[in-house]
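User: structure tokens for this one?
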Amino acid sequence: MLIFILVIFMGGYITVKLNRLHQITWKTAGINGQSINILEHLISSVFSIVMFEKKYLISKDQDYYTQFKEFQTYFLNDTKELRRLLDSIEQQQLLAAAKTCYDNYLSTFEKEVETIKSGLAYTNSPDVTELKQEAIAKLNANLNHIIDLLKSERDANIELSSQMSKNILNLTAIITVLTIILGFIISIFNTKSINGSISLLMKKTEEIAEGRFEVIENINAPREIQELASHFNKMCMRLKELDTMKADFISHVSHELRTPMTAIKEASNMLGKGMFVNRPDKQADLLNLIESECKRLIKSVNRILDLSSMEGNMMAYQFKESDLSQIVRNAILKLFPLVQKKDIDLELIPHPAMPLIRLDEERIGEVMENLLGNAIKFTPSNGEIKLSIDHDTLKKEIRVTVSDTGCGIATKHLEDIFDKFKRIDNGIETTRGTGLGLSISKHIITAHGGKIWAESHEIKGTNVFFTLPVS
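Assistant:
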């Protein structure tokens, strides 16, 4: 920026000075030179005028008088042009004095001409001759004085232009040297800043390779490096999020798989060792446990496989005209034992005239079980859960709302709850899940052309909504 300012200053200064130098040169070579030429021509004209005046007075020849008049015209024209060119008051005053001298000379001569033309005897008076010579001498002195002034002004302008040229050259040299020095200093600073920033990026890259995802803060570098650091921080945060997600996935899935497999293993060992041989009822309980844990294991694996298919747009849906109210009721019946166990007040508010809509009954039923299951899980004993179904004829959609009086969710986490393997720590002990339910629900609703979202106030409970289009 400083170099840019110096260059602009130098360009402006040189432009102004060169313009001034051009004006001085134009005046010196143009106006002053032209004025001096006219003055020299005036002096020559005065000499010719005096010469023809004397010849006429001696010879009385009219041709000499005619030539006198011709040079008088030259004199007057040159005087008029010179008056236009001269810009100094002193020069104008000298020119006016010279013109007065000429007028005095001409007046005296014209009287002599009238005497000759009238036929009277003409005698050359020494006093008249001296008067004319004095006027011509003053005239020439004034003209020569103007020439001296113009030459002095010309010499001063030449000296000024020479000095200005030296100043321009010196300033250009100084600014050039300063620009080179500043450029060198700035290049060193930028190189140091860039190298330091790149070294910091390399260090952070090594930390990421070691599993430490720390962002770069307050990097002092050029704008491009700062943008690179900003993108690096975004990448670092995303990698940290993915690493956390991976850890959650391993933790959740290992828990989901280990618990049923441990139960199956222990029950199998008991049966294999012949325990409870005389207790058929206990053996039946162990077999039932093995069967239920196998189903639980298969369900967990299927949920992971389903989510993978949904993310790859490979899930096949069986759409048909269905009654959404009945699907909601089936989900309630399925989970009603859990509702009774916690003594929760469950209320269904259906729409009186619900149209049939195209949907996959099994998948929408899974969504209802996920939403209702979460509501039951996070609603304390003696709490309340409300399910409402509304038909918006203007938007041509059906909206289902699941409301609970549980612990609620912080506003900043409302979007996160629909991410896979995402579980929000609300400080309340609940049965641990895989963190797939809401993510699967979002994929299913989106595939049906609807939307799903949540609204919540901490302590006051959570409302989860989803919409389905009416064809």
